[in-house]
Structure formats: structure tokens, C-alpha cells
Fold these 4 entries.
Entry 1:
Amino acid sequence: MAARQLINDPKNVVDEMLEGLTYSQAGLQKLDGYNVIVRSSLDKNKVNIISGGGSGHEPSHAGWVGPGMLSAAVAGPVFASPASISVLAAIMHVTGPGGCLVIVKNYTGDRLWFGLACEQAKAAGLNVELVVVGDDCALADRGLGIAGRRGVAGTCLVHKIAGAAAEAGASLSEVADAARAAAAAVGS
């Protein structure tokens, strides 16, 4: 009996996953030239929220794009952070007068590439804030400013709280404060 698998070719798995998601979910589209899923309709007068990370544990993050959650999700290669150029493309696409909140999990690559994209967006005059989630209770919080608690399952709750605040019309600073409070309170 021949082996069966759901993956056609490992080199195309991320592209095919994102393509399949856009076919199966109304209201989502892939940003041309990037592994970024965005909401088809965005209110740029409200805060828009971006997150993302390495692929391989779907439906995270693209599966969380929708009203009251994320405005866009940036997909990296399998178990690797997305490039800053993809993150910046997502920020540029969703950001309007309401601003953009970027929620990132506490992994070195994610912090580096999402952080760099946020700084580039700010240099271009966009109103962007970054929130880091480190909810992993398996690791002690050493408070040393070095790698510590990872962002894991609790990040989804931070997305939901920030998304609800943004959908209700809160300002960027209010949405960021709500996300920071949720990140500080959640543990996985």
C-alpha cells in the first residue's frame, strides 16, 4: 500500500495552505507577493491588528483573521519566523488613521523581524505599536530582559481581547494597553 499524505510537496506547503484558506473562507485574501492573509474589508479608521510567525501549526495564525480578531497574519516558513519585508508589507496594507497593533510571541526571530518592520513603519510615519506575549508557565520569568517565557496558546486570548477593543473603536493606545494587560495576566 502506498503511503498517503496531505502534503503535495514540502516546498509548497505554506503557499498551498494559504491558498486553501482563502478558497475556503469568504472575506480573506492573500496579499500579492507575500505570505500574508488579510481581511478583504478593512476599516482603516479603526486599529488594525497583525500577528504571525512560523507555519506548521495551523490554523494559527491565518485562521484567526476575521472581525474581532486579526486584520492580517504573516506566515513564515515551517517553524521559522517570517521575513521583516513580509511583516512590513502587512503593516503598510492595513494601517490607516486608526493605526496598527502588532502582537508577537516571545521568540527571538519573531521579535527581531516583527520589531524591525515596526521600526521601519514608524520611520515611514505610520502609527504602530508592538506588544510581546510570553505566557509560557513552563519557564520562569527571570526578569533579565533575555529570552525567557515563550508566547504559546495564551497569545490567542491576547489577540481576541485586542481585537474586541479595536472592533469597539478603541484608540491604538487603548488597544495596546488592553493587549499588554492580557499578556501580563495570561499563562499557558
Entry 2:
Amino acid sequence: MLVEKPNGYRTRFFVTILLCVVLDIVSVAQTSQWPRENPPPPLFAPKVEFPDYELRQLNNGLQVVIIESREQPVVNVRLLIRAGTSSDPTDKPGVAALAAQLLDQGTTGRTAQEIAASIDNVGGFLSVGAGADFSFINILVMNDRFNFALELLSDVTRYPAYLSSELDRQRQQMLSGMQVNHEDPEYVANMIFERLIYGSHPYGNPYAGTPESVRRITRMDLQTFHKSHYLPNNAILAIVGDVSSEETFNGIVRALGDWERGDFQVSDPVDPP
């Protein structure tokens, strides 16, 4: 037996169907009329104008790049040594990093405190470090302190003391940093990724070595690395700032002209996979 629904039920049913049809029509209309925009086209490549520069070379083989820049009364002095972490001894990764980090931690003529005070007193900036293929000393000063910057550069580059006390302090800082890094998943992932990419090539080694290798690095290791790689004929000096070319070159000759060249062996690691 069929049971007839009340009229109210049928009315609500038809109203619901009609509402769905109307909404569908509106949706189609909105979709067809919705404004469409393509992404903007790429900009034209900007014109790159490299500043004029001058290349010179000292008798000891030191290459010099001079760029006069008069926008601000400052001078940037940057020395690059063509030896970085990829030049580490195979059994002691971390030597290059330690040798570079200790450059400003005392020389034969200045303590670490005296170096820090001297650069602070002139309102300058000094940084040292090592990358995969080079080590660097970077100094930024006002242009009237340019000769001071060259003299300080010469001192920290050529005469680092590598005191045992400073080595122990820096070593402990590196080990503490490694302990923190080894608990960081991102650091561990990057370290494993580099080893998978570069294999046994030096690029696959940790930048600062391993805890085991850092504990075995001695003062003699640092001195040997410095003597073998920190040479004028294995370096390039860049001077950028508010100084003239002649003034710059004459100052470099006074500060670094007696830096003795030496024989160095270019490392020839295995090709990366």
C-alpha cells in the first residue's frame, strides 16, 4: 500500500531541488566570468657594470687587486690564501679551520686582547676563517686607518703565535659546538648528504673535522700547515675603498713586500663521484 506524503513535504523537496539548480547555475556563471590574469612577464636583465680595477703583483708573487670606491670613506682589505679545509691532512681534518681561527688569537708581537683592542680603538672590524678552498683575513677600517689595517694584516697573517693555551681554548669551543651540532637533525642530515655526494673527496669531510681528529691536532700541525700554505705566492689581496691606487700599492709594498715566497704543493685529491 502506497503512503502519500504530506503536501508540505513535497513542497520542501521541490524547493530544495530548485535551489540546487539555481546555485549550480550561479556557480557556472561565476566561474566563466571570474577574471583571469597571467603571471607578469620577466623583467629585462639589468645591465651589470663592473667597477674599474687594477691588477698588480709584488716581487714575492703576491697578487693584488685594487678598486677605488669613493662612495664612503672606508677601506676593505681582504687577503685570500689558496688553502682551505680541502687541504687538510687526510688523517687530521680540522687543521685548516683551527689554523685560520687562531690567526687573531695572538701573534709573536701581540696578544689576543691587544689585537681586539687595537681594532676596536679605530672603530674597525677584523674577521678570520676558512672555507673549503681558501682561508681569509678580512679587515674593514676608515680610510685614514688604511696603513694600520695593512700592518695588522701583515702581523696576523705572517706571525701567528699558535699558543698552546689559545689552541686548547679554541679546541674546547669547537668540541662543544660539535656536541650541540650532532644533536641537530638538520646538521646531521647535511653532513651525511655531503658524504653521500662527495664520497671520500675532502668536500665530503666535516668542515671543522671530527671530535676525534680535533683532539689530536697539535700546535706543530698548525705551524706546519701555516708554513706550507700561508705564502705570498699562494695568496691574493683585494683592496676596495676610498684610497688611490698608488697610495694603496705603496702601502702594500711597505707592509708585505718583505714577505718571503716559498714552495707549496697543490693538493690533488681524488675526483668527486
Entry 3:
Amino acid sequence: MKILIISGSHSRHLYIHKAVLQSGHECAAIVMEREDIIPKPPEKTLLRDVKNFNLHFKERFYKEKKAFGDLNSDDVFKDILVKKCKPGDLNSFEMSKFVDEFSPDIAFIFGVDIIKDPLMRSLPNIKVNLHLGLSPWYKGSATLFWPFYFVQPHYAGVTFHNITKFADAGDILHQCVPKLSKGDGIHDVSVKAVIKAKDDLIKLLEIYSATKKWNFFKQKTTGRLFLTTDFKPFHLRVIYDLFDNKMIDFFYENKIHMKTPRIIDGIN
């Protein structure tokens, strides 16, 4: 089986795609360069929000580096055919030609912008995106952050879905949520979600290798779509000023039941 990997350049993306490479199938990769892992706060951000913003993204960097390592695409994809691009070139004829020449059976996508034509037209029928968020409840951008903002940390999960021209709206293959524990902060949960996704991805690839099929399920509601521009530094006040990044402890200490959302399990 030939698998096309379409990956972002951050360690979390490469950590997942290492599992695809280790499946033993023939692979090729498109790697889209992502923004700086530690962004700068927007201009005119209030000082209290600058403090939370810097804390949030530095903590994310250190938590992910500890969990996933300091990965780079040159090392991870050194043994396969690779095409690198900037975000503006992802959906170019050059990338489309690269896919046509490789002629993959399936595509696995994680960490890139929305895929459009002409690249979309070149992808195989099975083109699975790993979305860090539970669709349809949390679609779009920062969808492991928004469950915490809305005090629903148990909705911080992952969706594997076939891509369409609409963000995170395709038929769902599988969903999973990490096990939450006392002491978990927002980035601990995010890291756990990625690790759980990697473990489940290995099982999904084993199922496809054995049966040559996956079962997909349509999304029944539109849910919520969050844009990159929706996130503002002051939203972090809920996480850090109100809960001191101890929202999980708050649920445990106050014996508030975190009802697991009804998710689609494509493995069991």
C-alpha cells in the first residue's frame, strides 16, 4: 500500500507521522512549513494578557518537546520522497503533480491548512485528516483550547475524518479522548490527546492492512467552527486567572461528573 503523508512541520505533527512511516508501507510526504511554535502576543495586548499569552505558549512548547522530542522533517522523512512547501504553495500545481507521480492509495493528513484544488483533485478517495478536536462540537482552529474555555475539558479529543472542501466536516472514521487525571493542565491534556491519537492510528492502519477498508460515518450536525481570528489573548484569563490552569482538579475536588461525549469508535 502506498501512503501519502501531508504534514505540518511542528514536532506534534511529525510525531504522529512517524507512526505512519513505521507501519512499513511505501510512503511519500508533503511538508508544509508552519508558524513559529512560540508566537508573539498581538500588538496592544494588555499586560495581564501578555503574561498569560507568553506563559501559555512557552508551556506548550516545553510540554510538547518533553513528550514528542525536538523533531524536524529532514530527519523524520530522510528515507522517503519529500516535497516541502510554504502555506501559500500547499494547493499548487507543483504539489498536485508530486501526488500524481506518486499515485497513493490513501492519504493521511495532519497539521496543514485546508486542502483545495488542484491538490484536492489529485488525492485518493481515502484522504484522512487527523483533527485535534472533537467534530462536530469543536471544528476549525485551536480546538483543544476551546473546550477548556467553555469549561468542557472532557471534550478535548481527536477526530479522524475524510477531508472535504469544508473544514473538519467530512465523514468520521474514528474519535478518541485521553484519560484525564488530577494535576493535568491544559497542555498535559493536549499531549495526552496526541499520544492517544498515535496509538489509535497504528491500530487503524493495521485494520486497513488486514481488511482493505475503513467504515466512515456522516456528521449529523454542523457543530461549531472556530476561526484562527476567534482566539484572543484575553480568552486565556479563564484558564489561568480563573482556574490557575487547574480545571481538571476543580472537577475532581468538587465531584463534578465529566460525562464522556458520545464519540465514534472506529477500532472496537
Entry 4:
Amino acid sequence: RGVTVLHGGGTFSSALNDTWERNGTAWSQRAPATNPPARTNHALVFDPTRNVSVMYGGLDPGTSSYFGDTWEWNGTNWMQRFPPNSPPGRAFHAMIFDCVRNVTTVVAGRNSAGYLNEAWEWNGLTWTMRNPSSLPVARGYGAMAFDSSRGMGVLFGGYKDIQFTVHILLSDTWEWNGN
């Protein structure tokens, strides 16, 4: 759609549910009829095959609860999706759109049980948990980008915990090709 989309965010004690778009020059606040609940630490990617931005997960800092919901932004309104399968709620996850396989991929993250090492894919109708032979160590706060020239998602770094008290900084690189 030729714009950057921003939704929500906030601080450790409060969250926002506003939606903004940037056209390369200026930011414009949007006023959709429907908004997702306020949240922080979620992920948002653009799906060019369906021409929507996909948002998944996040944290409600007021209640410390993790969202496991899927929302799509079409440039006018937010629409909550109710797929038959969904990943467990999480925040601090990495997410990409794989333009070779036309799926949104969520990797890792954190919820009340701790850091996760799962990979899930959204095809616009449902989420499917992927079960590759190896997965990165459970983590949150990793960064992920899609390398379109090689058809791979690339995940780097993040944090893992030892019993929620010791935070270990990770500096490993993983690649995801869907298998």
C-alpha cells in the first residue's frame, strides 16, 4: 500500500491502541471503526499477497496477560480473525512475511510459562505449528528479517532466561526456509 503501519505500543505500565501510517514524508493518525485492544511487544508485518498488515500477540502491561489474537489492517479498518488454530499467546516474538511461500511466520517469544521455541505460520485462514528437526533455543526479543534473494527468514539473537532470574544474551543466527 506504500505506507508504513504502526499500531499500539506504550510503557511498562500502560499501552496504546492507536494506528498510524507514514507515507515516507509524514505520519497520519488513522481513525478505524474497530481497534484491537491496547498492547505492547506485539509484531506486525505486511502481507502483499492479500494486501493487509497482520498483527499477532502482545502484552497487556496493565494485567500482564499475553494476547494470542490475530488482527488484520486493510488501510481502513482492523478486522479480528478467528482461526481454528492459533499459537499460544505471547509477546517479544519475531515475525516475518515469507514472500516465497506467502505465509506469515512467528518464531519464539515469551508468555507466562517462559520463553518459547516454536515456529507457527499464518496463511490467512489458520495458524499451523511447524515441527522442523531443529529449532533455535527458546528466546524472546530476537530480530528476524526475510531474505528474498535466498527465500529464507533470518533470526538473530535475543534473550533466554534461567528460571526467570538470569537473562542470557544470545548472539546466534538461524535460518528458516519453511522446513
